[in-house]
Design goal:
Layout lengths: L1 E8 L3 H12 L4 E4 L11 E2 L9 E2 L10 H7 L5 E2 L3 E7 L2 E6 L3 H12 L3 H20 L10 H8 L1 H9 L2 H8 L3 H8 L15 H10 L9 E2 L3 H15 L2 E3 L3 E5 L4 E6 L2 E12 L3 H7 L16 E7 L12 H4 L3 E4 L3 H12 L9 E4 L1 H4 L13 E7 L11 H17 L20 E4 L1 H8 L30 E3 L13 H11 L1
Parallel strand pairs: 1-2, 1-12, 2-9, 6-14, 12-18
Antiparallel strand pairs: 3-4, 5-8, 6-7, 10-11, 11-12, 13-16, 13-17, 14-15, 15-16
């Protein structure tokens, strides 16, 4: 049996990060990936036949990837800042947050809220989150600190308002306008099905969305998400890692033996250590452990819709250029009360009547993802729908997907000056360029239990017991993916920390 210092089970972006660090340190590393490509969900694709557009099919923006990892691995990667943070329609006006024009942002707050109070509260609140981001982000690449250390690091106010009490209560206390409250709360719900007034998992989701790389900014990867994985693959190969695609893991033993199947049959290799870039419930299966009850299986809660447009839709607010509104995050029916109503309906097993969602157009910041023949005649649009848990799609899957898309299009149309359907590009075969992915689709196509994009519920970025947050009950097996503590999102943090657990 062939032996390696490290076998990495799963070639997603975290597995590639771990492989690059470890191979660069002289370890003999094998990466096994079941798909015919690496990158996991951080990939680009051309989903519409005859349409030369490379969409970031699943994940689509980069915030949590530390610049330190980019420097350490010498990644050939460009991340572009978005000038406009967000635009939120409200009636015939809207809230535009312009990162480069504070006066314009202030005027937009006055138009939407009727006063100055919420803009001041916005500056104060995000001043606090910026301080937390600067303090907390470096700790994500270190051994876990104790809760008391983190409390001292971020300060009493932030500890209370972001860590100790539900984020919905904090937001309700600080902001008066329902629209503004909703804009803040969406960061607590991306990929997380929770009631922000009662559920602390929403706080953990919020933290990961505002602390990325010490700035919390969500940047556009030039070339799409596939460029991120491509740069990581190149770094891993350059360091000397061996990467085998088309190799599906079917067994892992505590002793380090890894069994996998490819087109030639079943094989086994041995690793002094095995780094697992798989969801925890998948690790349970390949370790041949008994899975938990259905209630403990993670559940994703998002609807992803990829589109190519022939033009940007017109807005009800004529004072805002659509290219500004759609280059940042465009919020759709995400007021505080709208979010609460949609959550209650989804929790009761219904597709929300007015699904909250948000969109942005990658091509407005990075037109390179559009082929030369279409450039200037097409734009991409990515929609992320909230409160769409997997339970809604377990029965009559195709009809449920169609119903969810219909309700979501009606939701976005309610805040536009024209139907989004009128703006869709037609593929050469006459079909509109729309692709829909539910949590159940992600479970089926990508192997994510429950379609959970973070593999499991996000954890606090600290722990009383120390360690790197990657340890399992088996000494030779470490988690290195999104399921590790401080994993989740396109960050590479899980991969880095698993590598450091072996190298330090």
């Amino acid at each position: 049996m062939v032996s390696y210092d490290v076998v990495v089970a799963g070639g997603g972006h975290n597995g590639l990060v771990a492989a690059a660090y470890l191979a660069g340190a002289g370890r003999r590393v094998l990466v096994l990936e079941r798909f015919d490509h690496v990158g996991g969900l951080a990939v680009s694709a051309r989903p519409f036949p005859g349409v030369d557009v490379r969409l970031s099919r699943y994940s689509y923006l980069v915030s949590l990837l530390p610049s330190r990892i980019v420097r350490d691995l010498g990644l050939d990667l460009e991340l572009r800042r978005r000038r406009y943070a967000s635009y939120t329609p409200k009636g015939n006006t809207g809230l535009l947050v312009d990162n480069e024009d504070e006066a314009r942002t202030a005027a937009s707050f006055r138009a939407v809220t009727g006063g100055e109070a919420d803009h001041k509260a916005w500056r104060d609140f995000y001043g606090m989150t910026a301080r937390v981001a600067r303090a907390l982000a470096p700790t994500l690449l270190e051994p876990l600190r104790a809760p008391t250390e983190i409390e001292r690091l971020v300060g009493a106010e932030a500890w209370r308002d972001l860590f100790q009490r539900p984020i919905g209560q904090t937001v309700a206390e600080r902001f008066g306008d329902d629209t503004v409250r909703g804009v803040v709360l969406t960061d607590a719900l991306i990929g997380t099905f929770a009631d922000t007034d009662t559920d602390l998992p929403a706080n953990r989701c919020f933290l990961y969305h505002v602390i990325g790389d010490g700035t919390g900014e969500w940047n556009v990867p030039v070339g799409g998400m596939g460029a991120v994985s491509g740069a990581l693959e190149a770094a891993a190969r350059r360091a000397g890692a061996e990467i085998r695609t088309g190799a599906e893991i079917v067994g892992i033993s505590p002793s380090g033996e890894v069994a996998f199947v490819d087109e030639a049959g079943e094989h086994a290799v041995n690793g002094r250590h095995v780094l697992v870039n798989l969801p925890p419930t998948v690790l349970d299966r390949v370790l041949d452990r008994v899975l938990g009850s259905p209630a403990t299986v993670p559940e994703g809660a998002q609807l992803k819709v990829n589109m190519v447009l022939s033009r940007l839709p017109r807005l009800k607010d004529a004072s805002v250029d659509p290219s500004a509104a759609f280059s940042g995050t465009f919020h759709i029916n995400e007021g505080r009360e709208q979010l609460a109503r949609a959550y209650a309906q989804a929790a009761a097993g219904r597709i929300p009547d007015v699904p909250p969602a948000e969109v942005y157009c990658h091509s407005l910041t990075d037109p390179s993802i559009i082929g030369p023949d279409l450039r200037g005649r097409a734009e991409t649009m990515t929609l992320f729908g909230l409160h769409m848990p997997a339970r809604l799609f377990r029965t009559n899957r195709d009809k449920a997907r169609e119903d969810a898309l219909r309700a979501t299009f009606a939701s976005i149309n309610s805040v536009l000056a024209e139907p989004i359907e009128d703006c869709l590009l037609q593929a050469p075969d006459g079909t509109p360029c729309v692709e829909v992915k539910t949590p159940v689709d992600l479970e089926t196509e990508a192997g994510l239990p429950g379609g959970h994009i973070f593999h499991t519920d996000l954890s606090w970025p600290y722990a009383a017991g120390g360690g790197w947050g990657v340890e399992t009950e088996h000494e030779r097996i470490l988690m290195c993916g999104a399921g590790a503590r401080r994993g989740g999102g396109v960050s590479g943090i899980g991969g880095h920390n698993a590598a450091m657990a072996l190298l330090t």
